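Recap slide: Endonuclease III, sequence and predicted structure.
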Amino acid sequence: MSGRITKKEKERIQKILDLLDEHYTREYKCYLNHETPWQLLIATILSAQCTDERVNLVTKDLFHKYTSLEAFASADQKELEQDIHSTGFYKNKAKNIIACTNMLLKEYGGQVPENIEELTKLAGVGRKTANVIRGNIYHEPSIVVDTHVKRISRKLGLTKEEDPVKIEFDLMKVLPKEHWILFNIQIITHGRGLCTARAPQCEQCFLKELCKERK
């Protein structure tokens, strides 16, 4: 969105947020199973072009086999490729996970950094992955543009962009900062339930009167 937001548009956006709060609560929830920051980082790398459900199935065994950053850093790439094969793009992901964990050990003392610039220097980590970490681990206001957030934000008229980074910055302009993380969680829930990509249930949707695409 470019230019100033009108009072009417601000009111429409606030109504959307109020309805999301009402239907999905303000509870923080991460859909990727993890016990440590580095486990969430690896799970998020695996989630590229893959469902969270599939990633959780894979990491259930993966994190029992590789119990530390050191174990991932010294992993045999071919073997790791087989371990994560079902998540897709497994060759790239295995290569990135090994490089990423090595960098965490060598440059950050085994700690996952909080700063987005440092996070995006890690292999396989773009702004989406970095914002998942910042939001879920460090509770830093952040917007994660996954397929649901991209699709539904466009439907609601919160952005016209296609590029995830441009969408992220558009949403940062129009959404109150304190709602950024919640918006991610609520829209993902909405996209999996009512507003699915293949068969959106528009007539049952509580946002139908505020949805620009429907109008």
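Residues 7-28+144-210 form a domain with the Endonuclease Iii, domain 2 fold (CATH 1.10.1670.10).
The chain has two domains: 7-28+144-210, 37-136.
(End of recap.)
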